[in-house]
Amino acid sequence: MLQRILKAPQKSFFLMGPRGSGKTTWLRATFPEAHVFDLLSEETYQRLLASPGLFADQLRAVPPDKWVIVDEVQRLPWLLNEVHRFSEERDIRFVLCGSSARKLKRAGVNLLAGRALHRSMHPFVPEELGPQFDLEDALHYGLLPIVWDSRAKEETLGSYAQLYLKEEIQAEALVRNLPGFARFLPLAALFHGQFVNMTNIAREAGVARTTVAGYLDILEETLLCFRLSAYEAKLRVRERKLPKWYWSDPGIVRAMKRSTGSLAPEERGALFEGMVAQLLRAYRDYRGICDDIYYWAPSSRSETEVDFLLLRGADLIAVEAKSGNSFAEAWCKGLRAVAELKGLVRRMIVYPRGPVLRTQDGIDVYPFQHFAALLAGNML
Q1: Is 90 exceeded by the pLDDT of residue 301?
Q2: DSSP codes of every residue in 155-206
Q3: 65: domain CATH number?
Q4: Is residue 31 part of a domain?
Q5: How many domains are contained in the chain?
Q6: For residue 135, is it within any domain?
Q7: Is 125 exposed, middle or buried (0-12, 13-18, 19+ CB in 10 A)?
Q8: Does residue 6 sit within a domain?
Q9: Quick one: three-class SS letters along 196-258?
Q10: pLDDT band of 88, cuts 50, 70, 90
């Protein structure tokens, strides 16, 4: 089994991550002696659903200071009341694992405020795969363990969308109009790395605009997607304020679009930018490389933009992702536009492969795997 870089805290914590990201495998390896409630098991789920008191009865038999894992906790969020009680009365430590924050947000998670930490499990990062990592394969199939470990990656990837619809959406009754949501998914995948046009998606999916807004919330709360807010730098231009939309894995994007075969030239740029976004997000959560991640762009319809601004204390690091294989001066346009930004300490470009470069005005240019190694060593 590949070694994941997520480190377990010493107190109770929530572990959230998209379906197929390897949470259960990591938990079993990290806490081999833990008492496990697997709510993905229909037998366990139905038993606790029919007899709510059984959960407390079993916890009473668990020795103090022992770890208890509740896998897919979002299926029975009321269990959190007992988790709260037993963590206080018996000093039992819990791992509350799930692939959806939607039901938990609406079911009293605040009861655990200050008593349970929050951790995220992401798709693989290059550091975890070592020599197995291949950028082309990563862009093609993504880095979800459920796909990466499969001998039939294309087939597994193709079934991911149906698995998501069946086990995450239909089983949890998150939407009333499942056919409409199914039509929405490939349309939403087209906006990977872009500003979402909800009106266009609503028209194509045959649902209301407000419904699309709700669907986007579901994708975010089931951890398949995330949004980057605009950074308000207050330079001499009016700045864009709409968030940018990303999927958490290039393979998921292709699965939702039902894309198969080799990468099309027109999808490569968005997939590469999204992979850089997800890599930054993973290392923010795993290693604390920054406090938050933004993008910057003027409000005018200009191609000037900076893909990522990393906020670390009072400092900013600007990162631009480019999918071409040969450095071009035009790539520096956005980074030069923010050169006078207060707190900016470093500017860099990430591209798929090639030499490490540095421009005359101090912009670092890194191939992807060199950039990933910098993140792994916390050397940004």
Answers
A1: no
A2: HHHHHHHHHIIIIIIITTT--S-HHHHHHHHHHHHTTTTB---HHHHHHHHT
A3: 3.40.50.300
A4: yes
A5: 1
A6: no
A7: buried
A8: no
A9: CCHHHHHHHHCCCHHHHHHHHHHHHHCCCEEEEEECCCCCCCCECCCCEEEECCHHHHHHHHC
A10: confident
